[in-house]
Structure prediction request, 500 residues.
Amino acid sequence: MSYDWIIKIVSDNWPMFIRGAVMTLYISIIGTIVGSIIGLLVGVVRSAPVPEHGVKRVLFKVVNAIFAMYIEFFRGTPMIVQAMVIYYGSALAFGIDMNRTFAALFIVSINTGAYMAEIVRGGIISVDKGQFEAAYATGMNHMQTMANVVLPQVIRNILPATGNEFVINIKDTSVLNVISVSELYFQTKSIAGNNFRYFESFFVACILYFIMTFTVTRILRFIERKIDGPENYIIYANQMQVATPEDMVARTKSANQY
Amino acid sequence: MEKLIDIQHLSKSFGTHEVLKDINFSVDKGEVVCIIGSSGSGKSTLLRCINLLEKPSGGQIIYKGENILDNRHDICTYRTKLGMVFQQFNLFNNHNALSNCMVGQMKVLKRSREEAQRVAMKYLQVVGMEQYINAKPKQLSGGQKQRVAIARALSMEPDVMLFDEPTSALDPEMVGEVLKVMKKLAKSGLTMLVVTHEMGFAKEVSDRVVFMDKGVIAEEGPPEQIFNNPQQERTREFLNRT
Ligand SMILES: Nc1ncnc2c1ncn2[C@@H]1O[C@H](COP(=O)(O)OP(=O)(O)O)[C@@H](O)[C@H]1O
Ligand SMILES: [Mg+2]
Prediction:
């Protein structure tokens, strides 16, 4: 009976399942965060205004060409193949025996970065031109404009897409079993290899994957709502909570002035 | 009179399309100048050239005796001296009303948070928006947004305020509240350069009116001249149409 087997498999192997799930979460969390940072940096550079002349312009074009290649390459090849090439390639080329977990983090981060870079660039492009102009008109330079006005809006707008990448990462870390990273799929495979109950073992893994993705999705929704803030605002009637006595003085003065 | 901004032979082309041709005019300190003219005549482009949101194709912009188009000049510092109010408000969507008026002060002028807040509150009161400091732009009406936008520009304590059709995107019932604020500012002695279609406003508050047509200044003079006794046929035609 499958049902009894599932109970048995879980009670016999729960530490392995948990370790696998924790590893999966660990790789996908770090991969998503580092990938988002890479994506943010690359996306910001790629959408920056081209310098008008000189060495800066050439440098900018070169950097952008490299970034474009990076994005095309990592989006255009399967992660499972990238894992093999990077892990075995680094051993072959540099004689490094990469730590498997490090290799996993590296691959997922760099892969997520390629997707996030395009998501960020799209997010920046879709911010109203008026936002940039108002910031420039206030005297902000490009960096200040990005940091104080544009990126906060971009980050809010790409949060759903980032959550999506996170969910994809939770599922796709399973391909890292090809370089023997002890994530959930790899652990399940060893469990099933011992008991030969493939369906039941992987059914447990399936449930665990779903719990992880479902929880992550809920948490991100919650964060989105938090960032959006309250639906309504408070009108300050006569007493202003932010006002200090000096403000009151300033108020009467300025009222006279105009 | 001290010339604050002196524009000499300014031209601007987009590709082969010559939008501004040999513009010469100046704004004195404390003066209120209104720019009128039909749509597409280059009014916005002129204003945007003045604060370098568009790069002029030729000519000079002399600000307090210095040509700001030579490369040595720091554009960001120059822009802090000009307050800009846009037709589409362009409030920072990620900031509430108060912080819209503070962020430039803190990041560009490097004022402390306390100082920035004090100044922001002062100007939010001038525009009558001090009760809405917590509101995000999307929670405000058009007229309220524009008043916050004016307060944001004033908070930088600029030498001159540039307004690009500040009431054109507003529902008719909200035009009044914005014009009221602008009249108050004009009477306070603030230097203002206003692109507008509100002829009543231009008549009432301006020291000088500039009429633009097809990329050139067709006529310029005191409001009495422009509105009651225009010297140019083009001006007369335009005023008859509006
Ligand atoms: N970025 C641009 N690229 C090309 N043409 C432009 C651009 N901005 C404005 N124009 C053109 O310049 C002319 C003047 O525009 P504008 O200054 O906005 O006029 P106004 O504000 O008087 O209505 C118009 O013909 C417009 O199409
Ligand atoms: Mg215009």
